[in-house]
Predict the structure.
Amino acid sequence: MTTDVDIAQFVFQTITGRKSQVLDILEDNGIKNMEQYAALMGELNALNFVRQELSGLLEKQELSDD
């Protein structure tokens, strides 16, 4: 049975993996043009936003469970 914690862990792992891939591209000068750079930076911002929102949601749930 899948729990909320299992889902959250999966999402966090997915976010962490994708952030790592994007950062590798940026650090290894794998950028082909400014459009790709802008897209990757936008993706990083979105990943950070989703991670923060999910963390906040989980914290609220923990507080309501107590």
Summary: Helices lie at 4-27, 34-65. The two ends are 23 Å apart (CA to CA). The first helix runs from residue 4 to 27. DSSP finds two helices and no strands in the chain.
